[in-house]
From TrEMBL:
The lineage of its organism: Bacteria, Bacillati, Bacillota, Bacilli, Lactobacillales. GO terms for cellular component: membrane. Transmembrane segments: none annotated. This is Short-chain dehydrogenase. It comes from the Bacteria. InterPro entries: NAD(P)-bd_dom_sf, Sc_DH/Rdtase_CS, SDR_fam. GO terms for molecular function: oxidoreductase activity. Pfam families: adh_short. Belongs to the short-chain dehydrogenases/reductases (SDR) family.
Length: 267
């Protein structure tokens, strides 16, 4: 276990800051006196989250409007960030969307949109930020919010789950490539969290009710993510017992398939 390192004064670029886990991360990091660059598409909500952060800190808080489905806008937006606010020492890739639907019923536009946000846009942002970290010879941390859906399959999650599985595999290799530059990579794999995510992802509207006994609150997920950053963890699985479930699935995949199709089939 690493010594706890404070996030105070660190310049943190946070995607998905306008809602759910990202919004709670913004408040927790502001309380811990980090310098923040909050990102999302919704400018009104960005301004609201920034104003709420002001209650907790006198550190600078900036906003950067960014749509991850528009890859050509990522580099110019980040050039503006580097020039005006500096190179972030921590990048938190929290933005993400899902859609729970059988693969055969998916339109390809929806497939592309999910991959664009969860993977390609996130990769493009990670590439420019890590390149700047390396060039400026500063150590850093990249935090990728993936999902338990990327570790274990469940029906109606082929596209969301595979986008997150790819994000986990990407993070695992990135970790090896960035280690010589003292840039660490943390992957966070939460189970269901009570956020607006399901307004788009869950067409039935029943999923959260079905998993309410073990669904996480965004505040507790934010606490675990910040602890993962402070203790330089490699991976955070939430709830923590999911680590055992992941192991069980690897060892006994047929049992895992059966359980996913029956007991844990809630979508
Ligand atoms: N909720 C869950 O059960 C759960 C479980 C496991 C993992 N996760 C993951 O946790 C992360 C946070 O999810 P959440 O539950 O907090 O969801 P949420 O409340 O729906 O927030 C999603 C965030 O993503 C941003 N976003 C969506 N489309 C975007 C785009 N095109 N470009 C840039 N940003 C975009 C949204 O901001 P704007 O609308 O302002 O752009 C919003 O801030 C996601 O990566 C999600 O996959 C969630």
């Amino acid at each position: 276990m690493f010594r706890k390192e404070s996030v105070a004064n660190q310049l943190i670029f946070l995607t998905g800051a306008t809602s759910g886990v990202g919004e709670q991360l913004a408040y927790l990091l502001a309380k811990k006196q980090a310098r923040l660059i909050l990102s999302g598409r919704n400018q009104t909500k960005l301004a609201e989250v920034k104003a709420n952060c002001r209650e907790y800190t006198l550190q600078p808080i900036y906003t950067a409007c960014l749509d991850l489905t528009q890859p050509k806008t990522i580099q110019p937006t980040m050039e503006h960030v580097y020039e005006n606010y500096g190179v972030p020492s921590i990048l938190i890739n929290c933005a993400g969307i899902g859609l729970f639907r059988s693969f055969v019923d998916m339109d390809f536009e929806q497939v592309e949109q999910i991959y664009q946000i969860n993977l390609f846009g996130t990769m493009a942002l990670t590439k420019t930020v890590t390149k700047e970290m390396i060039q400026s010879k500063q150590s850093g941390i990249v935090v990728n919010i993936a999902s338990q859906g990327g570790k274990m399959p469940s029906p109606k999650s082929s596209i969301y789950g595979s986008s997150k599985a790819a994000l986990i595999a990407f993070s695992d290799t990135l970790r090896l490539e960035l280690a010589p530059y003292n840039i660490q990579v943390l992957t966070v794999n939460p189970g269901p969290i009570v956020t607006n995510f399901f307004e788009q992802a869950d067409e039935t509207g029943n999923y959260l009710e079905a998993v309410k006994d073990y669904a996480l609150e965004p505040e507790e997920v934010a606490i675990e993510i910040v602890e993962g950053i402070e203790f330089r963890k490699r991976e955070v699985n939430l709830p923590s017992y999911m680590q055992l479930a992941n192991l069980g699935y690897r060892l006994f995949p047929r049992v895992g398939d059966y359980l996913s199709q029956t007991v844990f089939n809630k979508k």
